[in-house]
Design brief:
Radius of gyration: 23 Å
Distance between the termini: 38 Å
Shape: globular
Number of domains: 2
CATH class of the largest domain: Mainly Beta
Number of helices: 3
CATH superfamily of the largest domain: TolB, C-terminal domain
Strand content: 35-45%
C-alpha cells in the first residue's frame, strides 16, 4: 500500500537514518484558558419577510460559529438588557436585520458598544441564496475588525490533499472545512500544496511524471501548468507574494538544496551549498529571510538564512528531530514538528531561538503545521489509528477542532 504525504517526502523519508526515538522535554505552551475575552451579545437576527426566515437563521448561525471560532469573544445569544446588563461594563452587541425588496433578500449587520451606546460600524449586503455562507463570513470578519482592529479569518480558505479510494485529490474549501471543491484528481500521489500568486493559484508536487515535480494550478483554469521538472526531486515549495518568488527544495545537483524559483519555473539562484540535506523552506513575513530544515548537524534541525544566502544560524537545539517549519504571519513565532517518542507533535519557537514550547501532546501524530493569517490558529494533519484529518488549534486557549478528512493543509492569506 502506497502512503505518501508531505511529511513523509519532505522530512521523514529523507531523514530516516537520523530519526531515532526521542523523549526530549519541551515546555508546555502557556495556554491562557482564563484569557480575557470580549463579551459579545448576539441576539437573534430579525426579518420583515417570513419567506427569508430559513436563510436568515442560517446566516445568523454561521456568523455565530465564525465569531466563536475566532477565540476572541465570550458570546451570549440574547440582548444585554434581558440579562441585566448595564452601562459601564465593556461589551459589544451584534445586530442583524434581513429585509425584502422586490423579492430580493438584503442583510444589514452592525455593531454597537453596549457601555456607551456608540455605533461602531456595519455593512449592508444583497444576499443571493447561493451566497449566504460567503456573506456571513464577510460580516463576521467585519465584526472582528470593528471590535479589535485586526483582520478576521472567516473569509480565508484552505487547500489540502485528500485520498479517495485510489485517487489523490487537491481540495480547496472554506476556512472551516465547508464547501470543498476538488481542483485536481489523479491516480498518483500529489502533496505539499501552497497558495500562490495572491491566492489565485496553488503550487503543488505530483508524481505524474514518476517522481515529484512541481505544478501550478490557477483556480479559474481547468488544467495545471508544469512549473519545475528538473532532474531528481522538485518539492517543498513556499511562495512569497512580497518577493514574487518561490523557495523550493531541488535535488537536481545530487543532494537536496534550497533554490529561489521564478513563477515561470526558472531558477533565480541557489541559496544553500552543503553536503547535508537542506529542505522544507518557509519565508518570513518580510521576505528578507527564511527558515528551513537541515541535517548538517547530524540530525534534522531548523536553521534561518537571509534571502541572499548569508547570515546562516541554527535555530533549534532541543530534540533530535525538528522539521517542517512554518513562520507566523506576525513574525513572532515559528511552528514546527518535533519528534516525541514514536509520534510527532507541533511546537513553536521564537525566531531568536528562545521559548520553545509544545502546542500538542495527545497520543497521535501531528504534522504539516501552517498558520492562519491571524497568527493565532495553526492548521495541521492529525494521524491516528487508520485516519488522517485536518485539525486546527488555537495557541492562546488550546482549543482544538477537526475540520475535514485529509492531509497537508495550507491556509490562504486574507
Amino acid at each position: 500500500m502506497l502512503r505518501v504525504t508531505a511529511a513523509v517526502v519532505i522530512a521523514v523519508s529523507i531523514f530516516a537514518g537520523s530519526a531515532l526515538a526521542q523523549m526530549d522535554v519541551w515546555p508546555d505552551p502557556i495556554v491562557q484558558e482564563s484569557v480575557f475575552k470580549i463579551p459579545l451579545w448576539l441576539p437573534p437576527f430579525q426579518t420583515d419577510d417570513a419567506a427569508f426566515t430559513g436563510p436568515m437563521q442560517r446566516l445568523e448561525e454561521i456568523v455565530f460559529k465564525d465569531l466563536e471560532f475566532s477565540g476572541l469573544f465570550t458570546i451570549v445569544r440574547r440582548k444585554p438588557e434581558s440579562a441585566g446588563m448595564t452601562r459601564g461594563n465593556y461589551s459589544v452587541q451584534v445586530h442583524g436585520q434581513v429585509t425584502s425588496k422586490e423579492g430580493q433578500m438584503y442583510f444589514e449587520g452592525w455593531v454597537t458598544d453596549v457601555a456607551s451606546g456608540d455605533f461602531l460600524g456595519g455593512k449592508k449586503y444583497r444576499v443571493p441564496q447561493s451566497s449566504v455562507r460567503r456573506i456571513a463570513h464577510h460580516f463576521a470578519d467585519e465584526v472582528v475588525h470593528l471590535v479589535t482592529g485586526e483582520q478576521g479569518i472567516a473569509s480565508t480558505r484552505l487547500v489540502f490533499v485528500r485520498k479517495s479510494r485510489q485517487q489523490w485529490e487537491l481540495v480547496v474549501s472554506d476556512y472551516d472545512g465547508y464547501n470543498p471543491r476538488v481542483l485536481v484528481r489523479q491516480g498518483v500521489p500529489l502533496l505539499n500544496p501552497r497558495w500562490a500568486d495572491g491566492n489565485k493559484a496553488i503550487i503543488y508536487s505530483s508524481y505524474r511524471g514518476g517522481k515529484p515535480d512541481l505544478y501550478i494550478r490557477y483556480l479559474t483554469e481547468s488544467k495545471s501548468q508544469t512549473l519545475a521538472t528538473y532532474g531528481g526531486m522538485n518539492y517543498a515549495v513556499d511562495w512569497s507574494d512580497r518577493q514574487r518568488l518561490a523557495l523550493v527544495a531541488l535535488s537536481k545537483d545530487g543532494n537536496s538544496e534550497i533554490y529561489l524559483l521564478e513563477k515561470s519555473g526558472s531558477i533565480r539562484s541557489r541559496l544553500t551549498h552543503n553536503r547535508a540535506i537542506d529542505t522544507a523552506p518557509c519565508w518570513s513575513p518580510s521576505g528578507r529571510e527564511f527558515v528551513f530544515v537541515s541535517d548538517r548537524s547530524g540530525r534534522p534541525q531548523l536553521y534561518i538564512m537571509e534571502r541572499g544566502g548569508g547570515n546562516l544560524r541554527r535555530l533549534t537545539f532541543t530534540g533530535g528531530y525538528n522539521a517542517t517549519p512554518a513562520w507566523s504571519p506576525k513574525g513572532d513565532l515559528i511552528a514546527f514538528v518535533a519528534r516525541m517518542g514514536s509520534e510527532f507533535q507541533i511546537a513553536t519557537i521564537t525566531p531568536d531561538g528562545r521559548d520553545g514550547r509544545l502546542i500538542t501532546k495527545a497520543a497521535r501524530s501531528h504534522e504539516d503545521p501552517r498558520w492562519a493569517p491571524d497568527g493565532r490558529h495553526i492548521v495541521y494533519t492529525e494521524r491516528g489509528a487508520g485516519d488522517e484529518v485536518i485539525s486546527v488549534v488555537d495557541i492562546v486557549t488550546g482549543g482544538k477542532r477537526i475540520l475535514a478528512q485529509g492531509t497537508n493543509p495550507d491556509w490562504s492569506s486574507p
